[in-house]
Specification:
two-stranded antiparallel ribbon, mainly alpha, 2 strands
Length: 214
């Protein structure tokens, strides 16, 4: 039986091979994990299949260690900690990469769209307002990613609807008024621009009853 990959190997697999040295620099300053990373999701970036953890359990490194890293290494670190088990930690590190259109950053942001923390959805919506603007660099980068990963984005859309139905329907009786709906619409607009055709919506219409959610 083959040995299980080490936590470091699991985290390295979340980034393109060209970034392996940068990931190692980040792992060198990150505290040892309290538990192994849990779960993973698969996406295609730069023609490479990446396996990104659902959750990591490393404490955050000290600020002086982070400051000593290069800009790209800091982005790698913030991406990894956007997968942290604590939602407040995820939100803090997300804020540091929302301004990046690097293709390997994008799956970390889109994964958070399909999660349950409302404050994070609002942050992403504000950070990605340009997705609806023709010619915007983020629109091109996100559209290209979604076109390359249609099943991943379809799952993301379904999860946005599901979390609204489970947890936020009292606050937002219509899905169209929910921040997650605004965000999914922006992402679909970018995907449609990248594909050159309308991108399918999996959102409920009006007050239609939901089936298969929660």
């Amino acid at each position: 039986m083959q040995p299980l990959p080490t936590p470091g190997e699991l985290l390295t697999a979340a980034f393109p091979a060209d970034l392996a040295d940068d990931v190692q620099a980040v792992l060198a300053v990150a505290p040892a994990p309290l538990h192994r990373p849990v779960g993973q999701f698969s996406v295609l970036v730069w023609g490479e299949q990446l396996a990104i953890p659902e959750r990591i359990y490393n404490d955050e490194p000290p600020p002086e260690a982070v400051a000593a890293l290069s800009l790209r290494q800091r982005r790698v670190l913030h991406c990894l900690y956007s997968r942290h088990c604590d939602g407040r930690v995820r939100q803090r590190h997300l804020a540091q990469v929302l301004g990046s259109a690097d293709p390997w950053v994008i799956p970390f942001v889109v994964q958070l769209v399909g999660e349950y923390v409302l404050e994070i959805l609002v942050d992403i919506t504000h950070g990605l307002r340009g997705l609806g603007v023709p010619g915007d660099g983020f629109r091109h980068a996100y559209g290209e990613f979604i076109v390359a990963n249609p099943a991943f984005f379809a799952r993301t859309q379904r999860r946005v609807v599901s979390y609204w139905s489970c947890y936020y329907r009292n606050a937002y009786q219509s899905f169209q008024g929910y921040p997650g709906c605004t965000l999914v619409d922006l992402l679909r607009s970018a995907a449609a621009a990248g594909a050159g055709r309308p991108w399918p919506s999996l959102a409920p219409k009006g007050s239609a009853k939901l089936h298969g959610y929660c």
